[in-house]
Amino acid sequence: MRIVIAEDDPLLREGVALLLRAESLDVVATAGGPAALLAAVDEHRPDVAIVDVRMPPTHTDEGIRAAVEARRRHPGLAVLVLSAYVERAFATELLATGGDGLGYLLKERVGRVEQFLDALHRVAAGGTAIDPDVVAQLLTRSRPDGGLERLTARERDVLALMAEGLGNTAIAERLVVTEGAVHKHIRSIFAKLGLAPADRADRRVTAVLRYLDDGRRPGR
After folding, report:
1. Which pTM does this prediction carry?
2. Which of 110, 147, 167, 174 has the smallest count of CB within 10 Å of its CB?
């Protein structure tokens, strides 16, 4: 796995690089800003870019914009975004580019090495990894007329795990239920939210998060 890291904090940038190299992963370049990130992606054609949301010069959304541009130039590029806070608009802006190979984690998750590496590998394989805290806050902040109030407690549990990027088997293991039960809950969730179920887990995650972002039922 070839990786580019874009982070303006030198200590964190080098710390993540050291961690990944210790895991025998190939960090081909590091960057301190969006322009350097795009140049590194163009030059090295990595499999994954790990990108900070807030980078110079304004420390607002440069990282997200650079990640979106990098994926536009190189559609196969997987992106794992790191953020110090839950930034709902930025998460959904990135997901709007397409759900394949995308992750959004809080920086504190890097210290939980196994979880961080699991998310990285999941994203590199074309899946989705959304921080559980991000999912929880998206669910909490969603508008009351969005249809979520129609879900049962178990369906909300399944939705949260689905939005993290877990597949049916992993959800079943986490909730200690059968895969058949998970499939039934997912069908019910899509029906109640007015969403057509997709075959690929990353696409349905994108659909759910878009739905949570605009707080409306499609076709209403």
Report:
1. 0.72
2. 174
